[in-house]
Specification:
- The chain is α+β, with helices and mostly antiparallel strands and about 120 residues long.
- It has three helices and five strands; from the N terminus they run αβββααββ.
- It has a single domain, classed as 3-Layer(aba) Sandwich (Trna Endonuclease, Chain: A, domain 1), CATH 3.40.1350.
- A hairpin with a 4-residue loop joins strand 1 (about 30-35) and strand 2 (about 40-50).
- It is globular and about 40 Å long.
C-alpha cells in the first residue's frame, strides 16, 4: 500500500509540475531548468521572468488548502531550495549576474495559484 501511495504522489507531483510549467510559460516565463538536484535538495522549476531568475517550488495538493503552505514550505525546505539555487548558479555562470526570486506555484484540481516572491533567502 505504501509503495502505491508513493507512486501516486510521484505521478501527481509530475503532473502538477507540468501544469505549473505550462502556466508559467503562458504568463511569459522562459523555463530554463526542471527538477534540478543538489546535495542539499531540489528545485522544481527554474525560469526567467523579465530578467529575473526565478526558482519555483511547486505544491500539488488535493487534500490540503493554500493555507497549509507554511507547513509544506517551512524554513528547512526554503533553505534546501536556496542552497540548490546557489548550486545551480555556480554551475550556470551565465545566470550569475541576474537578480533572483523564490516563487511558489500551488496546484489544486481546479486552480493554479502563483505566489511571486513567496520567500527570501535567510541570512
Amino acid at each position: 500500500m505504501r509503495a502505491e501511495s508513493s507512486k501516486y504522489r510521484k505521478i501527481a507531483g509530475k503532473e502538477g509540475e507540468d501544469r505549473a510549467a505550462l502556466f508559467l510559460e503562458s504568463s511569459g516565463f522562459k523555463i530554463v531548468g526542471r527538477n534540478i538536484r543538489s546535495v542539499a535538495g531540489e528545485v522544481d522549476i527554474i525560469a526567467i521572468d523579465n530578467g529575473v531568475l526565478v526558482f519555483v517550488e511547486v505544491k500539488a495538493w488535493s487534500a490540503y488548502s493554500i493555507e497549509n503552505l507554511e507547513y509544506g514550505i517551512n524554513k528547512k525546505k526554503q533553505q534546501k531550495i536556496v542552497e540548490t539555487s546557489k548550486y545551480f548558479i555556480k554551475n550556470h555562470r551565465e545566470y550569475s549576474d541576474m537578480p533572483i526570486r523564490f516563487d511558489v506555484v500551488f496546484i489544486q484540481a481546479d486552480a493554479v495559484t502563483h505566489i511571486a516572491s513567496a520567500f527570501m533567502e535567510s541570512v
